[in-house]
Predict the 3D structure of the following.
Amino acid sequence: MTERKGIKYARYSLIGVLILGLAVLPQIITNPYLLSLFTFIAIYAIVGIGLSLLMGYAGQISLGQAAFFGIGAYASGVLTAKQMWDPWIAMVAAALLTGIIAALTGGIILRFQGHVLAVATLALTIIVYILLVQLEPITGGLSPGLPGIPRLSILGLKLNKDFHYFYLSWAALLVLLFLASNIVHSRVGRALRSFHHFYGGSEQAAESVGVNPTLLKVQVFALSAMYASIAGSIYAHYISYLNPSPFGIFMSLQLMVMVILGGLRSLWGAILGAATVMALGEALRAVVPMLFPKAFGEYQIIAYGVIMIVILLMAPEGMVQIPRIIWAALRGIRSKESQAPQLASEGVVAQRAEKGS
Amino acid sequence: MGFFDQLLQFALSGVGVGAIYAIVGLGFMIVYSVTRVVNFAQGEFVMLGGMVTATLYAAGVPLALAMVIAVIFAVLVGALMQRGIIHPARNASTVTLILLTFGVSIVIRGIALLVWTTDPRSFPAFSGEKSIAVGQAVVSPQAIWVVGTLAVLAVALYLFFGKTMPGKALQACAVNAPAARLMGISVETMALLAFALAAAMGALAGIVTTPLTTTSYDIGIPMAVKGFVAALAGGLNRIEGVLLGGLVLGVLESMAAGLISSGFKDAIALVILILVLLVRPGGLLGGAEAGHI
């Protein structure tokens, strides 16, 4: 009991420190590139949380988040730049649109498991990308793209400085994180875990107690799509210009690596993963051209691939494991997680069932 | 050119393209049936086959030798992948395995990007460029090589699985791995063999299509997706199904590109994928039980 309280205390104080840190960050960091990096971390982390809910809790793999991110961004962009809608209403509309699309496609593809689901979600990303490129009258395609997306404004204060978006995206992140956390710790969360075999559940068993796995899967899929959509809308208003190129397979992969690296079964993992991957990307951009002068393009993907492989083989719980291991070591207890690396095999983990974020 | 002549032309080019998808699909099928792993890196073997051959040829190596080396290289990569990553993770969850093969595919692609940059590569067609007329349509001789390769591979696989000991051993592992082990078959060796075979086939597909379509560092993913569609159409375990699926996909894609717009061409494969999954999840030719290659 005391241990639980101790962990809770540490957690809350960490959150407090984080919020304080975030509040002051723009004062300390004056380099605009660095500030924008942090803003992007928050934006991607929002998508990551949605993906984490989907993969870590509902157990469904999705390589399609980039598609929803793109739909949200373009919906916001087109509605505000071309149809002159109010940006906030457009954002809500975009999220609803994305949610509906996700619910419909999810209804079709979520009946599949494993590999087929992965390919189907990948297919989604590719189809959406192709549509964004080809439907030029609406989206502007690859060139000229969609320029002139208006900035957001809150209660009359126009958000046209970079640090405004820093605060906006982190605030949105924290709110959405809170929401996701509530879901995880609610009846819905327990229902999700009841059919996810990692937690020792099974679909038939869940159905026998009145849980409807298919419906829940579609709902979480739609929710994760809406998270991605909101992030996309913020992204659109932040950079004011859209082009289909980022919203492809590379982004879906990047998001996947973020969530896995951070820790699938922890919502904080999404934030941690996003921060680490972005930092890594920057580090690579600085270092690789020195070693391979002719290199250009997205060579960071090698690192992403290697990270993914290493994490999956060695530390499937992701980076989020580390504080727990340290905490347990400090208390002189050998934590179960720090035993020889286990793979996420079905049987192993009834023990871990209660340790989810 | 009359409308039907156009259709004929699309159909013919589609067969050439579809044959490649079928070969890639066969690679997926072999690996899946033995190891229950869908190897997303399959497309990268196709890329490696073409790129390595092109690079060697450009460096002065005779074409035939370059092709052999390329295939061997792909097989080594496949074997390395199996031993180094798939085998240690053999008890992991499906999601983990998917992500692992995905991880490998992005590593291979990333390295290819660094080594070869984004320039497309090619090498000469095997028997010249002179098109052959079929009615009002034309066919490139290389396309005939492609279809011929597919035919030879399909027959070879049939014979391999049906008549040879290693082939039967592979089948045994696909049907029931523990039972196979009890019979003295080393499942681990069979898994390695499956990966090696799939890599070789992927590389061959890449080699034979490069003179027609050129190749570049990033053809892996579209190849993998389309090959997977072909494999799914075959229920992941029937050679005839994979052939049919690949050819149908190729022809439909070619028609769509010709009649609608080439930009949407890649989307066709994916829509077909979803349709197949919805309507005949067991494959176009009906669901045979797992393992019956």
In short: Confidence is low (pLDDT under 50) at residues 337-357 of chain A. Chain A touches chain B through 51 residues (CB under 8 Å).
